[in-house]
């Protein structure tokens, strides 16, 4: 009886997703291979002024400025001296698994997202430690002092419970005093903290959204199946929060204070063309920047070889949708 009820719940979740009106498709403008990343595994993008910056989840001691003047793009390493990581309140079991995994995969800090404020400070989220590193324009690195309520509330809401499924992306407002974080999956979620003198804390509640369940991969995906809902990155543009929803191959615009979905756009038609497919059975987009002209999406291929033989990380440029990102359905 319980098994039948569980199957019915899964069917309802998947059916609801499948019956939703298809999201309009974004148009691919350009595609750029990236050379020079020591650890490969491009896992975040940020636009700071006119420059694009990226990170690798295998590199703890450097971030990258992208030279986009010629093809392929060149990743120029910028060294950072990272101080010891503060205790974020994650349980010992998760921390121990992270420590053990770092010997196999490399990268104890597991950098998974990067963003910038208007002053040029870069903020980088460490998934493995649920912590945020600030790097000033001069290169000084320090960890934000974040209230333990962040992790406590996230876990109480069903997030940050699984190894390698913690914070996957972040976005900051131009003033540098409000920070959004994305919990990756099982359950995925969105959280908001604000700077209060020297400590970053919840403004009321930290959790804007906690969401479990499954959704169907797009029809363009070979042997599409129901997979966990997830977030892979965030971008803040014109006061709206944009979520990169990797398994659904879409970008969604959300209210920045309630996390309510306002509209979504798909990039499946372009990303899943035969020559661009990877052998992995899930989406590989990990990085997002949204601006007035369009969106940058970065691919972390985990050294996997694409159908056309490309093995380097890829950055796609998509045009803004007709009517702009603020367009109503």
From TrEMBL:
Signal peptide: 1-20
GO molecular function: isomerase activity
Entry keyword Ribonucleoprotein: no
Coiled-coil region list: none
All copies of domain Phytase-like, residue ranges: 40-186
UniProt xrefs under Pfam families: Phytase-like (PF13449)
Key words of the record: Isomerase, Signal
Superkingdom of source: Bacteria
Keyword match Isomerase: yes
Name this protein carries in UniProt: DNA topoisomerase IV
């Amino acid at each position: 009886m319980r098994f039948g009820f569980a199957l019915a719940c899964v069917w309802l979740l998947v059916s609801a997703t499948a019956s939703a009106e298809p999201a309009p498709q974004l148009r691919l403008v350009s595609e750029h291979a990236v050379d020079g990343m020591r650890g490969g595994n491009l896992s975040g993008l940020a636009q700071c002024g006119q420059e694009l910056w990226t990170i690798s989840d295998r590199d703890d001691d450097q971030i990258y400025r992208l030279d986009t003047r010629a093809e392929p793009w060149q990743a120029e390493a910028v060294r950072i001296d990272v101080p010891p990581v503060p205790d974020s309140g994650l349980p010992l079991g998760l921390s121990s698994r992270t420590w053990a995994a770092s010997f196999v995969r490399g990268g104890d800090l597991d950098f998974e997202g990067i963003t910038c404020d208007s002053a040029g400070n870069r903020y980088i989220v460490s998934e493995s430690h649920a912590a945020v590193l600030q790097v000033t324009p001069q290169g000084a690195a320090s960890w934000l002092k974040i209230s333990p309520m962040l992790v406590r509330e996230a876990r109480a809401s069903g997030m940050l419970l699984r190894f390698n499924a913690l914070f996957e992306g972040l976005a900051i407002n131009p003033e540098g005093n409000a920070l959004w974080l994305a919990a990756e999956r099982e359950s995925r979620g969105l959280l908001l903290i604000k700077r209060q003198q020297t400590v970053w804390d919840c403004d009321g509640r930290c959790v804007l959204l906690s969401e479990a369940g499954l959704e169907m991969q797009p029809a363009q995906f070979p042997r599409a199946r129901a997979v966990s809902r997830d977030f892979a990155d965030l971008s803040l543009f014109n006061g709206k929060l944009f979520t990169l929803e990797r398994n659904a191959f879409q970008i969604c615009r959300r209210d920045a204070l309630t996390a309510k979905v306002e509209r979504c756009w798909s990039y499946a038609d372009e990303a899943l063309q035969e020559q661009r497919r990877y052998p992995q059975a899930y989406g590989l987009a990990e990085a997002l920047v949204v601006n007035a002209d369009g969106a940058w999406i970065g691919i972390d291929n985990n050294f996997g070889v694409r159908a056309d033989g490309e093995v380097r990380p890829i950055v796609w440029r998509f045009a803004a949708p007709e009517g702009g990102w603020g367009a109503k359905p």
